[in-house]
User: What shape does this take?
Amino acid sequence: MEKYIRVKDLEDAALAILPKNARDYYTSGATEEYTLAENKRAFQRLRIRPKCLVGLTSYNLSTIVLGEKVSMPVGISPTAMQRMAHPDGETANVRAAQANGVIYTLSTIATSSIEEVAEAAPNAIKWFQLYIFNDRDLTRSLLARAEKAGFKAIVLTVDTPLFGLRTADIRNKFTLPKHLKLANFEGQIATKVNSTNDFSALNNVDHYLDKSLTWNEIKWLKSITKLPIVAKGILRGDDAVRAVEAGCDGILVSNHGARQLDGVPSTIEALPEIVEAVKNYNVEVYLDGGVSTGTDIYKALALGARMVFVGRPALWGLTVGGEAGVDRMLNILRKELKHTVLIAGTPSVTDITKEMVRHESTYSRL
Ligand SMILES: Cc1cc2nc3c(=O)[nH]c(=O)nc-3n(C[C@H](O)[C@H](O)[C@H](O)COP(=O)(O)O)c2cc1C
Assistant: This one.
């Protein structure tokens, strides 16, 4: 694994070995993929302003998230169908998270079940990503299973009344390989979803998503679970306020890896508006989308995120080496973050302030 020095090295290696169907599914963003590129570019437009000779004696990457200590402010975002990347899929990914003391978020649309993931890594801090389905019994049973299996929070995806248009998947007539299954639906809508042998496999899940949802539904969710709720997919300050007032404990600033709607802001651009909007509330703000280096993490923390999550980087690690590959990805980020906090002169991740970062335009002489 030592030959992979950057997350980009893992990405290049993964893209070279993944079958086209899976590669396109993992990489694609919505329509023209402008926002997909911006998720990365917007980080590059920010500059870190290091402080020199601050008297470094130690450093600290650990922080507290929803009451749990994590070893660094990086967690794993929910991504669907991880067994296309590696035969052990979600179970390898969660084991790497466990070994690294970071949060793993399991997708509803996973190829390993809630119970398999819990069994694979009983001591990992596990969160469960939920879609609210028209079938409230199905929704309720997923929630109950996650709670029973020891998951610590519910990540409610709020940006998906239906799935975005992903050109390559439409062209490929994307479907889950025959030997895999959407494990959380076994015995439920799975029979219909899993037996369909064309792109409608995903459209079928899409069909079951409750499009009539409003923020009022958070009350219903809170009536059936004691777990904290994180609203995932927020890109506006007013929505962040609605989420908190509805009872959410966390806001995940996310554009779904740019897979939902092209032309929306990159997540690092959207972050300051959201942090500002909820500054007087007791809520944690996180970010995902385009994070692939230690300096990206640092910039997000400086602009007010408590932690970041990574989606595709874990898929690249998983593809290259299963658990060892995800472990490598996390260690690359840990090392880069350590170097960033030390060289920037802010040795503790909880002490990074907004003034450590400036937009490139501040330096322009035009
Ligand atoms: C292949 C793939 C599948 C995804 N599946 C889900 C999902 O099932 N549920 C969800 O809420 N988000 C899903 N997402 C979005 C991720 O949770 C996350 O927001 C995104 O990947 C972050 O961007 P990054 O990949 O640049 O790190 C998916 C993203 C990818 C790339």
